[in-house]
Specification:
Elements lengths: L4 E4 L3 H12 L4 E4 L4 H5 L25 H8 L13 H15 L8 E6 L12 E5 L4 E4 L1 E4 L11 H4 L12 E3 L13 E5 L3 H12 L3 E7 L19 E2 L2 E2 L1 H8 L9 H10 L10 H4 L4 E5 L1 E8 L2 E7 L5 E5 L2 E4 L15 H6 L2 E2 L2 E2 L12 E3 L5 H4 L8 H17 L1
Parallel strand pairs: 1-2, 1-6, 6-19, 7-16, 8-9, 8-16, 9-12
Antiparallel strand pairs: 3-4, 4-5, 10-11, 13-14, 14-15, 17-18
Helix pairs in contact: 1-4, 1-12
The structure holds flavin-adenine dinucleotide.
The site of flavin-adenine dinucleotide (FAD) has 32 residues, from α1 and α2.
Length: 407
């Protein structure tokens, strides 16, 4: 069968997978906007939380690390754990990687993926039929879903009430993924909900742009920052995320993860490397951003066009907090139902666990020929799949399996 493999996604995971497949001589068509999550859905001026050692996109050939890019582009070298990566540098790196290793990227949307019709089984002789928003339809022998964060922004039910028509920057409430330029909040009162890096960095960048910002976080002591590299415990093994046995095991030995009980897998994906600000953010945060710790957010509404959050305090009282705008930095949740480009037939055929695809060896789903990598693979291969450094584990394995089964 001469049909190509389709890789849907041109972020770090899609680009890395495509480079590995092409290095094996497999014909591949790759779709998506290069690095769009980083360019349009993260704030301008953001700095990466991951260290340079943990921020390379895995390639089949030498010469394509973040360090190689900095040398080629003549930018400041990024080498030690104390070097912090500006998002603009990382976007430039991703585009450079794409131009060198994934030429011919097609910047069109895949509108639908369905099983091939006729006699064939899924992934069998008839493969998959893909429709593009250019109007073209074609058959692929296998499909790799690497759509990352796209369409998976998560809004808790209590906050969704304040955004009847969906979250939007021009309404009372938005999701953090909807902001690139935070200077729109200059002179305004802003509430940022959340305590992860995205919430804390959004709060700092908005405050530095002239907003009066309050972070609303659940639990006591939820707003915290990691230890700087020079204060990390020396007797624990190094991992791309810091020194700890658990992080080392999850980063370098992700293979057995999928054999853990479902409850443990989902818990670890949420909790490991969970909410914690980067060490270098503390000084910019303290004294500039107010923090309101609450037991929970009860509901969100609007009064005179402004959002109002009703929160339960740790003492059990209900308080109303209002502002000009609320940004929900409440993260992303994988849900196959939200991947609307997958046809109904495919979605119902997929084995899932709490809305996420259940993956076997080589990142294959229960539908032969259909693979998932990046965030949607985290519940099977662990929290490392939420980060760029997960490409080092995922891409060679996925490419090897796909080449053996469908090459
Ligand atoms: C605020 C923030 C900060 C982060 N900081 C870090 C960090 O410091 N270090 C780190 O390692 N990770 C960080 N992450 C996580 C990081 O975003 C992910 O690890 C990474 O982007 C995932 O890459 P990806 O290729 O899976 O998906 P994405 O980068 O989200 O790319 C998705 C791709 O899919 C394409 N696509 C989607 N749907 C379709 C379709 N239907 N048809 C065609 N193409 C489609 C898009 O065009 C895009 O090319 C951060 C995340 C956030 C939100």
């Amino acid at each position: 069968m001469n049909h190509p493999v389709a890789v849907i996604g041109a972020g770090p995971f899609g680009l890395s997978t495509a480079a590995h497949l092409r290095a094996r001589g497999i014909p591949v068509r790759v779709f998506g906007e290069p690095m769009v999550s980083w360019r349009d859905h993260m704030p301008e001026g953001m700095l990466l939380k991951s260290t340079p050692a943990a921020s390379s996109i895995d390639a089949p050939q030498r010469g394509h690390t973040l360090g190689d890019y900095c040398a080629a582009a003549g930018t400041r070298p990024l080498a030690t754990d104390e070097d912090i990566i500006p998002v603009e540098t990382f976007i430039g790196y991703g585009q450079w990687f794409q131009e060198r290793l994934v030429p011919g990227l097609e910047q069109v949307r895949v509108v639908s993926v369905d099983r091939g019709s006729g006699r064939g089984s899924p992934g069998g002789p008839d493969g998959f039929v893909l429709k593009l928003d250019s109007g073209e339809s074609f058959t692929a022998r296998a499909v790799v879903v690497a759509t990352g964060l796209s369409g998976l922004a998560y809004l808790p039910a209590a906050l969704a009430e304040a955004a009847a028509d969906g979250p939007t920057p021009s309404g009372p409430l938005s999701h953090s993924s909807q902001h690139h330029d935070l200077s729109r909040f200059a002179g305004k009162d802003l509430i940022v909900v959340g305590a992860g890096q995205s919430a804390l960095e959004t709060a700092v960048l908005a405050a530095e742009a002239g907003a009066r910002v309050t972070v609303v976080s659940r639990g006591r002591g939820a707003v915290d920052f990691g230890a700087p590299p020079w204060d990390q415990p020396k007797l624990r093994p190094e991992s791309p995320f810091g020194r700890a046995w658990s992080l080392w095991a999850l980063s370098h030995h992700a293979q057995p993860y999928r054999h853990l009980p479902a409850g443990a897998r989902h818990y670890l994906v949420r909790r490991v490397l969970g909410p914690l600000g980067a060490w270098w953010l503390r000084d910019r945060f303290e004294g500039r951003v107010a923090v309101r710790e609450v037991r929970r957010i009860v509901r969100a509404g609007a009064a005179e066009g402004k959002p109002v959050l009703t929160v339960q305090t740790h003492g059990g009282r209900l308080d109303d907090l209002s502002a000009d705008h609320v940004v929900a930095a409440t993260g992303y949740r994988v849900d196959i139902a939200a991947m609307d480009f997958l046809g109904d037939g495919l979605r119902t055929a997929l084995a899932v666990s709490r809305g996420t695809p259940r993956l076997g060896a080589g990142y294959r789903s229960s539908v032969p020929g259909l693979y998932f990598t990046g965030l949607p693979a985290a519940s099977s291969y662990g929290p490392v799949m939420r980060f760029v450094c997960g490409t080092r584990f995922a891409s060679p394995r996925l490419a090897r399996h796909l080449a053996a089964a469908h090459g």
